[in-house]
């Protein structure tokens, strides 16, 4: 096979979009080599087809000298993640730490549920094993097995367990997520020592900073595969259909696999003959997250236009309050685009406040 050509040796080379910078796309051609800086053919523009990081594309008009080309076609996507915007990712690598910051079961649960609600599969990594005793490590391992997960315990600092992480990532597109300070950047730096593999570096005033959901940084792994780092996934709100939430808990999936609830629309709270309600650790998490999903759904139904401008507070008692936000200066910007971004920022603020409360 000619490098960069399709399986059948056809004329149009294929590649993977590894970075998006304004209207330019960096494409890594199949078969390797330096990436090609591409524009998008106007036909795609007219069709309104957006090119995303992770997209498999057909590239035309390749200029071998200048490494330029044009994206002619986007191949069908296997998966699509909206925040962060990544196509064809297979899994979400959730990184948490066993200490500093301490492992908070509610926060971990929330991230796991958010990951389960995507079409990607979650892979859980617990860092900083050097900071806790072997018995504490074992206790977490056992607890999380009850939740339906098999976490990789690692220490980035002591380089323990990293081969297993690499094995898990090889040849796949992975989105990395997790709370602040758990060691995500340290892990990326260990896995990808060669800084030149940092393909998604962004510059220019059109680009927003690292801490926005718009920005996706993609790293190429030494043994093949891509790792997408973006804070976009890091404030997980649970805005799913309330009846879907239960399927995000492996424990509940197992229970439902053994038999159905009496009512097909059972929310697994106080309905009779419920298969899910019972003596499992995260049942409390389920109830709390269900409240949140219901609150969000009500908000969507009652005030579809205002949802993003309202602040949803769920009090400790479970009481839900919608507070109108004061008009912030972000709203006064002119263009639709920046207004949309302002709303996104606002939603993120709301979500982070909720997480903190
Ligand atoms: N003890 C110990 N410390 C670690 C380990 N891995 C990372 N750290 C430290 O944890 C701190 C946070 O690491 P970062 O890699 O910046 O964490 P992050 O998840 O990227 O944080 P954000 O950028 O805020 O999202 C740093 O001081 C690291 O040196 C580890 O395995 N053991
Ligand atoms: Zn039920």
Number of helices: 8
Order of helices and strands: EEEHEEEEEHEHEHEHEEHHEEH
Named once each, the bound ligands are: guanosine-5'-triphosphate, zinc ion
What's the story with the biggest beta sheet? 6 strands, mixed
Structural class: alpha/beta
Query: What's the number of extended β-strand segments?
Result: 15
User: Gap between N and C termini, in Å?
Assistant: 57 Å
Strand order of the largest sheet: 10-9-8-11-13-12
Per CATH, what is the topology of the largest domain? Rossmann fold
CATH C-level of the largest domain: Alpha Beta
Helix content: 25-40%
Average pLDDT, to the nearest integer? 80
Considering the protein shown, what is the CATH homologous superfamily of the largest domain?
P-loop containing nucleotide triphosphate hydrolases
Q: What is the global morphology?
A: globular
Q: Rg, please?
A: 22 Å
Total separate domains: 4
Poorly predicted regions: 1-6, 196-213, 326-357
CATH architecture annotation name of the largest domain: 3-Layer(aba) Sandwich
Give the strand content: 15-25%
How is this fold's topology laid out?
Layout lengths: L13 E8 L2 E6 L6 E5 L1 H6 L8 E8 L4 E7 L5 E2 L4 E2 L3 E7 L7 H12 L4 E7 L6 H14 L4 E2 L8 H8 L3 E5 L6 H8 L25 E4 L5 E4 L20 H8 L25 H20 L7 E5 L5 E5 L11 H21 L1
Parallel strand pairs: 3-5, 8-9, 8-11, 9-10, 11-13
Antiparallel strand pairs: 1-2, 1-4, 2-3, 4-5, 6-7, 12-13, 14-15
Bound molecules: guanosine-5'-triphosphate and zinc ion.
